[in-house]
Amino acid sequence: MGLRWINEQDLKAIRAQADIVDIMSRYLSLSKKGKNYEALCPFHDDHDPSLSISTDKQIFKCFVCGAGGDVFGFVQKIENISFPEAVAKVAEMIGYPLAMPTSAYKPKADPNQSYYDILQAYISYMQYELKSEAGTLALDYLHRRKLNEDVLYRFEIGYAPDIQASQKYFDAKQYDAKTLKELGLIQNGHALFHDRFVIPIHDANGHPIGFTARKLTNTGDEPKYINSPQTKLYEKGHVIFNYHRAKTFAHKAHRVILVEGAMD
Ligand SMILES: [Zn+2]
Questions:
Q1: pLDDT tens per residue, range 146-159
Q2: What's the burial of 39, exposed, middle or buried (CB within 10 Å: 0-12/13-18/19+)?
Q3: 65-107 confidence digits (pLDDT tens)
Q4: Cα 16 to ligand 1 centroid, rounded to whole Å
Q5: How far, in Å, CA of 4 to CA of 6, rounded?
Q6: What is the reported pLDDT for 255?
Q7: In whole angstroms, what is the distance from residue 193 CA to residue 191 CA?
Q8: CATH code of residue 249
């Protein structure tokens, strides 16, 4: 990374606005000595304060190990980052709005993003199926349970069609079976959720991680409700359904109502 993406004007402004004493005091305990400050040097094994900071010159210098420089040099050295990164860091600390090309400062990609994408696509597919002919029974059932369109939309409730239809969907998406198994969408060689209405379960940050699904008729020996199995995303016992939506409201209202099932 070069300096090219921090322009000279910004650099000058940040240098003028950032006080080296203020910035260094976020990392070290400084003591005032006359006009200047001193501290234990973090760059060598220091027992007497060997590092001094000149407030006039806005630089620091260690008289034992020789470390020294300006405010950017200090941040660069103590954070072990590049010069442009140090400038960006100082800008952030003093609240200086630094316009940067988005590519230069991208947050780290979430390693699970491809899993969330698969689950989110599956949610959309099931929402579509709920409104299709195959989903008619499920939709009728949900309406009878007084779930209106707004609730269905907000909770992304969908319908998982029969095994063949789901398999056709997975094939069309070219997902590999191993990934689908890891996500709990396939079990015993076929789609876990079939002919059930399905409610997505999210983590605290709103990422889809699993599902709870109810069958529509009470016949047969399959359980009424089934949930996603434990997966690397869905850690049972660590997830509260709807928490990511409720947390802001709960914070404002200073209270939380916990119920047993997703439908409650
Ligand atoms: Zn030193």
A1: 888 888 888 899 99
A2: buried
A3: 999 999 999 999 999 888 888 999 999 999 988 766 544 555 5
A4: 26
A5: 6
A6: 66
A7: 5
A8: 3.90.980.10
List the structure tokens of 264: 């409650």
Q: Rounded to whole angstroms, how far apart are CA atoms 57 and 89?
A: 21
* Cα 30 to averaged position of ligand 1 atoms, centre (Å): 14
Q: Which of the listed residues 70, 105, 140 is the one where a domain comes to its end? A: 105
Question: Residue 69 C-alpha to ligand 1 middle, in angstroms?
Answer: 12
Going from the Cα of 1 to the center of ligand 1, the distance in angstroms, rounded, reads 28
27: domain range?
8-105
Gap between the Cα atoms of 115 and 34, Å rounded: 59
Report CA(63)–ligand 1 centroid distance (Å): 7
Report residue 253's pLDDT band, with 50, 70 and 90 as the boundaries: low
Q: What is the tens place of the pLDDT at every residue in 173-224?
A: 999 999 999 999 999 999 999 999 999 998 887 889 999 999 887 777 778 8
Question: Residue 259: inside a domain, yes or no?
Answer: no
Same domain, 129 and 82: no
Quote the CA–CA distance of 22 and 30 in Å, as a whole number.
Answer: 10
Q: Is 160 left (phi over 0), alpha (psi -120 to 50) or beta?
A: beta
